[in-house]
Write a structure and sequence with these properties.
The protein is an alpha/beta fold. It folds into two domains: 241 residues, Type I PLP-dependent aspartate aminotransferase-like (Major domain) (Aspartate Aminotransferase, domain 2, 3-Layer(aba) Sandwich); 126 residues, Aspartate Aminotransferase, domain 1 (Alpha-Beta Complex). Helix content is 40%, strand content 13%. The protein has a seven-stranded mixed sheet with strand order 1-9-8-5-4-2-3, sandwiched between helices. The protein has a three-stranded antiparallel sheet with strand order 10-11-12. Bound molecules: pyridoxal-5'-phosphate.
């Protein structure tokens, strides 16, 4: 095979193209009817009467969720080390401090015992990350949060659609859940995100702050005869709104999500079958009542593979197969390491996973033929 198989590709069709063209022809490009429709459909998809507030990225969504919860200077927010820097950076935007803790060695999700021992009088919130699309043990996290009066914002950038004990991520009892529609996520709008919450006060604050702190509700309720230029700025807000162009893509991606999931699960099952005899640790699967979104398929090389992670990546690359690593953990990232004086030994699970982990291609646009080539290539590495 001489065509390169990228690590990730979006799956876009004529429906997305037609909807974007329709939006362009309408001349309404920014937040408008397509955004409203996308949010409405998203609320119905998650269910349980949630409010969905679209934004221009999951990073913006996490920032807005923490802002709405009143996180500020002097507060501490607990996050896992094995995540994208977004999860932590938004805490610093608000002047608060991040407390980075280790993950569970099996699930690679935030370690609940480590959360417990990291709680201080300054702790205000926890941001669990559903790593690769496998839900965290949310009952334990929510119970702990209740006991210590902490807020919970789920970073669900990998978890659309994931379920925990029969309930969709986004519909649980946390304060807010944030999804990403970045180009390599399970559905995309190019750039985009969605905050979901069941709390009206939080959704109202986010709606105000995502667009310059302009209070539309006050405007609508009391001033409906006022011209549109006469709005009220009630806070120094942000410019985080989603465009109708992006929402046009999202409307159709969301419709296709159930089919995307079936394909991702099928691809994951085929990897499990293919790797059962190789010196590879396959990713943990869900427990009863769970649904794995399969955003990522993260394998780990066993010690007896006699091959470094970097060499494995190099060989696959030479065979025309793209891979990635999720993630170089936060405790190894210069900014976080220096600011909080972090040491590898304090993150044994994330650190040892990092040294042996590789994310191999898994996306709905991938063909089974492409996957067969990836599987054959990996088997060949270990048969040499
Ligand atoms: C992708 C990702 C984000 C950020 O998403 P954006 O929409 O690009 O801002 C945050 N957290 C995790 C775990 C992610 O994978």
């Amino acid at each position: 095979m001489n065509t390169f198989i990228p690590f990730s590709l979006p799956q876009l069709g004529q429906e997305e193209i037609d909807e974007v063209v329709d939006t362009l022809k309408s001349s309404w490009l920014t937040t408008g009817p397509k955004v409203e429709k996308f949010e409405f459909n998203f609320e119905n998809f998650i269910g349980k009467d949630v409010k969905a507030i679209s934004v221009n990225s999951a990073t913006s969504g996490l920032h807005l969720a923490l802002e709405a919860l009143g996180i500020s200077k002097g507060d501490e927010v607990i996050v896992p080390s094995l995540t994208f820097t977004s999860t932590a950076e938004v805490v610093r935007y608000l002047g608060a401090d991040v407390v980075i803790v280790d993950v569970d060695p099996m699930t690679l999700n935030i370690n609940i015992d480590k959360i417990k021992s990291a709680i201080t009088s300054k702790t205000k919130a926890i941001i669990p990350v559903h790593f690769a699309g496998l839900s965290c043990e949310m009952n334990d996290i929510l119970l702990l949060a209740k006991e210590f009066n902490l807020k919970v914002v789920e970073d669900a950038a990998h978890a659309l659609p994931s379920c925990y004990k029969g309930n969709k991520i986004g519909s649980l009892n946390s304060d807010a859940t944030v999804f990403s529609f970045y180009a390599n996520k399970t559905i995309t709008t190019g750039e985009g995100g969605m905050v979901v919450t069941r709390h009206l006060d939080i959704s109202n604050r986010i709606k105000i702050m995502r667009l310059h702190g302009i209070d539309r509700d006050i405007y609508n309720r009391f001033q409906s005869k006022k011209p549109s230029w006469n709005y009220n700025v009630v806070a120094p807000g942000f410019k985080y709104n989603m465009t109708d162009i992006a929402a046009s893509i999202g409307i159709h991606q969301l419709k296709k999500l159930p089919d995307f999931l079936i394909k991702r699960k099928h691809l994951a099952d085929r990897y499990f079958d293919a790797f059962s005899d190789l010196p590879i640790i396959t990713p943990p699967n869900v427990k009863l009542g769970g649904v794995h979104a399969w955003h990522l398929f993260v394998i780990r090389l066993k010690d007896n593979a006699n091959l470094s992670r970097d060499a494995f990546i190099q060989i696959l690359s030479e065979k025309g197969i793209g891979t990635s690593v999720h993630y170089k953990p936060l405790h190894r990232q210069p900014y976080w390491r220096k600011r909080y004086n972090l040491k590898d030994v304090d993150f044994p699970a994330a650190d040892s996973a990092f040294k042996s982990m590789v994310s191999i291609p898994l996306y709905s646009a991938m063909t089974f033929k492409q996957q067969d080539y990836i599987i054959e290539s990996i088997i060949e590495i270990f048969n040499d």
